[in-house]
Design goal:
Length: 317
């Protein structure tokens, strides 16, 4: 059971909201936020915070020991588009950072949450109703680190007893924090553009179908998985999870129900389009439903309505 939690990458899109949710459930003093840079103005700084570069193995170990951590949500990573621009740095952060976290978790018997991604699949993977267990041959550095991370978590679980669990997240949509260099960033950017300019130039093609999830569902999925009795888990790690499978054109059409003057154009970024074309259109997440009761609350219509309401308040428009 989670009592003292460390969140790495706490200033990121997922980390910022996960940290707040964990603090609401466990108490502010029981959730230590960390990030590679010092924070002073964000919500995650309103509570225990440590500056932490996950590539520093001794520092990771010291933070886990000093705070008597029993659960680590390890979110620090370079995302897909940025990783393609800086592959060596991405490998160093994504892989060596995870290895350091697992090594720190091992002597304290900490549970570890590792977020994998639809990027862990590749062009030879079935793209529609992608199975939980299937061929994975990613062609991006980001995808390679996510697949390697899945396997490393399984190794530490099988050989050292580390309770390492994880989810293969789809694209995440949030009104609170902007994304940081992912292939599905358009699904957040489009809302800001719709409210502020009534137009958006999309970097993916109109019919690029990908899985997506609203942030409240993503946070709930991560916490629910870590609270599940391990005896119920057959897969333990790298569960497919999704909430909706949509295209930019479908998202734009739903936004136009509320903002009829909104217009979308397409100027395809060949790098990010090539990445998207290797990812699943829709994952089969039935194993998550069966093994730990996963169920999304937000579909496309519910997500768009809530995003526009919350973001219009945030932007005062």
């Amino acid at each position: 059971m989670m009592k003292k939690v460390l969140v790495t990458g706490a200033a990121g899109q997922l980390g910022s909201e996960l940290t707040l949710s964990l603090r609401q459930q466990l108490g502010v003093e029981n959730v230590i936020a960390s990030d590679h840079q010092h924070l002073s103005t964000t919500d995650v700084a309103d509570g225990p915070f440590v500056q932490l570069d996950v590539r520093d193995s001794q520092r990771v170990m010291a933070v886990v020991n000093d705070h008597q951590v029993d659960t680590i949500f390890h979110l620090a990573a370079l995302l897909s588009a940025v990783a393609e621009q800086h592959p060596k740095q991405a490998w160093d952060i994504n892989m060596n950072g995870l290895l350091n976290v697992l090594d720190a978790a091992r002597p304290r018997r900490c549970a570890v949450f590792f977020p994998s991604s639809i990027g862990a699949f590749g062009p030879n993977t079935p793209r529609m109703n992608t199975p939980q267990d299937t061929i994975q041959r990613p062609t991006t550095l980001y995808g390679i680190t996510k697949l390697s991370g899945e396997l490393l978590c399984d190794y530490y679980h099988q050989h050292f007893g580390v309770d390492a669990r994880g989810l293969r997240f789809p694209g995440l949509i949030s009104y609170k924090t902007l994304p940081g260099g992912g292939t599905t960033d358009y699904a957040v950017e489009i809302f800001y553009a719709a409210l502020q300019q009534q137009s958006y130039s999309c970097f993916l093609a109109a019919e690029s179908q990908l899985d997506m999830m609203y942030m409240p569902d993503a946070v709930n999925a991560a916490i629910s998985l870590m609270k599940t009795d391990p005896a119920l888990l057959r897969h333990h790690n790298a569960f497919n999870v999704t909430a909706m499978s949509i295209t930019p054109a479908q998202l734009a059409a739903e936004i136009q129900r509320y903002i009829p003057t909104f217009e979308i154009t397409y100027h395809v970024d060949p790098v990010r389009q090539a990445i998207a074309d290797t990812w699943p259109k829709h994952m089969d997440d039935s194993c998550a439903h069966v093994e730990w009761g996963w169920q999304a609350e937000f579909g496309l219509a519910e997500m768009v309505r809530d995003m526009l309401e919350k973001l219009s308040t945030k932007l005062s428009c």
